[in-house]
Each structure stands twice: as C-alpha cells, then as structure tokens.
Model the fold of this input.
Amino acid sequence: MRKLAPTGIAAAEIGGMTIHSSLGEQRNSGKPRTIKPGDLKLEKEWTLVEYLLIDEM
Done:
C-alpha cells in the first residue's frame, strides 16, 4: 500500500509521502515532467502497489 497526501505535513502525519514526490515531480522546479509509457523507473516503483491511499487532512 502506498500512502500519499497533498502536503508534506499531511504526508508526515500518515507516514507517507507527497503526491508530487511519489511521481518524481520536484516542487517549484518550473519544468514539468512528462511521464511516458515505458518509464521503467516509475513503472518499477508502482508495479507492486496494490492499494493507494490519498489522505487530505
């Protein structure tokens, strides 16, 4: 199970990570990241995830 939240504080409260960081996005980088089919790093990180909990506190 992967636990995500929109803010760092909310993520810390649930022992998870931010939505952006889980997708490899850097906050305020100014350059959007394009996720393409075959992105092996992202696929590998998400392959075994069966449940996704997104908490908005």
